[in-house]
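[step 3/7] fold_predict: job queued, chain A
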Amino acid sequence: MYNYFMKALIVVDYQYDFADPKGSLYWPEGETLKDGIEKKVKEYRENNLPVVYTMDWHPENHCSFDIWPPHCVQNTRGAEILLDLNQADYIVKKGVEVDWDSYSGFNRQSDAQPLEDWLKEHNVDEVEVCGLVKQYCVDATYQDALKHGFKATIIEELVK
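[step 4/7] structure written:
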């Protein structure tokens, strides 16, 4: 447990289906963020600051597939995070319930510990957010961080 306030890095949905040109919901130039995100993760690790990854983790019949092509289906290549999982202190799976979509990493999913509780437990008062996709999951995570009382910044050069 930390005894001072600190900031955390939240890497949003850097997954195969979004970041790889062969992914089912590929976001243009998503693959170009990898080196910069890895560098930022390394910076946080070297300074003993927490790193959080969020990920879509959809069942095969998820409600978002009415709007979007099927993507990030649980236990498939498309759902794989394209970063070293050992570098994350906490991984948030979202969109896990069939009839409830979730863009934000702060939305409670099943019985997992809510992200805001995990961050507060680790004395985090500020977050930096990066990843995919800025207009949807990155922005929703940023907005919810603010709603939960965290100082929040989007790292503009590390979003698409």
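[step 5/7] annotate
Residues 134-147 form the longest helix (14 residues).
Strands lie at 6-12, 51-56, 90-94, 124-131, 151-159.
exit 0
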